[in-house]
Amino acid sequence: MRFATLPDGSPDGRLHLISRDNAFAVAAEACTTLQSLLENWDALIPHLEAQSSALNSGQAKTAFSFEPTSALAPLPRAWQWLDGSAFDSHGDLLASVFGFDAKQGNPDTILMYQGISDRFLAPTETAVFPREDDQIDFEGEFGVMVDKVPMGVSPEQAGRHIRLLVQINDWSLRAIGPHEMKTGFGVLRCKPRCSMAPVAVTPDELGASWRDYRLDIDLAVDFRGERFGAANGYAMSAGFDRLVAHAAYSRDLVAGTVIGSGTVSNATYREVGSSCIAERRGIEILDHGQASTPFMRNGEYVRMEARLPGGQPLFGAIDQTVSVL
Amino acid sequence: MRFATLPDGSPDGRLHLISRDNAFAVAAEACTTLQSLLENWDALIPHLEAQSSALNSGQAKTAFSFEPTSALAPLPRAWQWLDGSAFDSHGDLLASVFGFDAKQGNPDTILMYQGISDRFLAPTETAVFPREDDQIDFEGEFGVMVDKVPMGVSPEQAGRHIRLLVQINDWSLRAIGPHEMKTGFGVLRCKPRCSMAPVAVTPDELGASWRDYRLDIDLAVDFRGERFGAANGYAMSAGFDRLVAHAAYSRDLVAGTVIGSGTVSNATYREVGSSCIAERRGIEILDHGQASTPFMRNGEYVRMEARLPGGQPLFGAIDQTVSVL
């Protein structure tokens, strides 16, 4: 099943079911918001499945053409956003360039911080930042949304609470990050609001490409007129089941918690490219002694879209322009 | 003005006005929740002031006795909780014991992380943790609640958005913290849900004890049958105006954002005591080479209350028992 949220003047927007080809939308009948669905998943989902079947077979009388650029984030605001960093090639590269090993020598360490979630930017919303000198960067990620998760669940139990998959752009201000990380208090000012691609999907929409709680699909990033990267999501060192269990160690997770993968990255980054500028700059430093790709400037834009292996649309595209205050 | 939230079965509870002596309550007429008040402060506050005046002069017909132990947190859930660490004697002590200077040699550094806020525990709610071995500790703090704050405000502008003051217990799992801090991703699993004292107050309730955006009152902490600490809130190296402006550097702050002071601590800690166990243990290590005060055990409780200099009640008390899963 696929979901999108269209604006209706309220902070949570109006939940819609989206057809499997992302071409048609119909207002969900069983509930009005994605948050309320995640709070009451088991009771509501049979009704939504019936409505979704009708939509996919052309029987939904009130269906209309879905225009992804008019959508909000599927979850326009969330009570909790926890972002991991599960692609080791990303961390290893930055560690070798900057001499800082976040995992402290233990490959089993899970890295995660809590970020701003009172609003997720819409997929085509302009992203506003204080200034260019903060080194504005995008970060292409995947994420999951869970229903209510009890404190202390095992990874196996945690996996059963993963209800929806999403695609995220986790904006970063790179000039601020290293200082915040050295304090031990972690990232805050270097992490402005994220955006989400327009469509959230149930894991079965990925078929065999959802396995081991990882998304085995490529995240295409287009920037400055070229394919900047197309890294695959399967390379996570810990799957989303482990990320959810990690987060739930000392807290139950409120329904609608969003958990991110961290920047999608592959060890073959010289071939597949990168999902953020910082990684490409790291490669440049390794290869040429200095970075040559500038961070984003006022007015520049980035596009990110992960499709199914056959090319069919999935989450829709994030396509955002940067604006400086 | 004083506010408390009483349970009504909804996640946000029912907003009440509280009399100046914390003895009487009356349901707020102009709005039903503290979140809605903070979203529309300027329009609603004149109505609430009139109702509060009636309550304080014994003219509120529907007033009833206020029982603080029946209250929820004034804001039972918030879209954003950002906790600072503005008492330098706390950081300096831990730095000298553990050899880690969070401020990295720059006294102007502001330390802050984003914590869990989908629910704040009620003031007398049992606090549930995974296990004793994680070194369960309380942290007595003060905090502020703001209305909507634009990105990029100056400290002077930020100060005008501070609408309410609160008292907080920021629970910590000390065995987990140092490792999380070393990763640079910051504190997450070591920071379970916080609790709040029952009454939120407007700054004018403190009279001359609210100055320079700091609370010049003592936070009395009672633990294991003794006065564990009574540190004063004025010693913040950065006032709440600066903490709010720091938080708003690259994000506008949603109305109802809660910003914490960090553990209240004074350089005279050997005389006034401490607001957390970790600090006392640090003093013991400095003085005797080893710590002797154990962290909290299953079934132990802690009480925290800050009153006005004349002894009049202010926020009411946090009085919580620890329970291990």
Q: Tell me the fraction of residues in β-strands of chain A, as a range.
A: 25-35%
Greatest interface by residues involved: A-B, 49 and 49 residues
**Sequence stretches where pLDDT stays below 50 over 5 or more residues of chain A:** none
Largest sheet strand order of chain A: 6-5-18-9-10-12
How many E-type strands of chain A? 20
Largest sheet of chain A: 6 strands, mixed
> In percent, how helical is the residue content of chain A?
10-25%
Structural write-up:
- The structure is a homodimer of 325-residue chains.
- The first copy, chain A, is α+β, with helices and mostly antiparallel strands and 325 residues long.
- Helix content of chain A is 21%, strand content 26%.
- Chain A contains 8 helices and 20 strands.
- Chain A has helices at 34-39, 41-56, 88-98, 155-159, 177-182, 240-247, 269-272, 277-288; strands at 2-6, 14-18, 24-27, 64-65, 81-84, 112-115, 127-129, 136-137, 140-146, 162-169, 172-173, 195-196, 200-201, 210-211, 214-215, 218-223, 226-232, 258-260, 301-306, 318-324.
- In chain A, the strands form 5 sheets. A 6-stranded mixed sheet of chain A has the order 6-5-18-9-10-12, with helices on one face.
- In chain A, a hairpin with a 2-residue loop joins strand 14 (210-211) and strand 15 (214-215).
- In chain A, helix 3 crosses helix 8.
- The radius of gyration of chain A is 19 Å and the shape is globular.
- At the A-B interface, strand 6 and helix 5 of A face strand 6 and helix 5 of B.
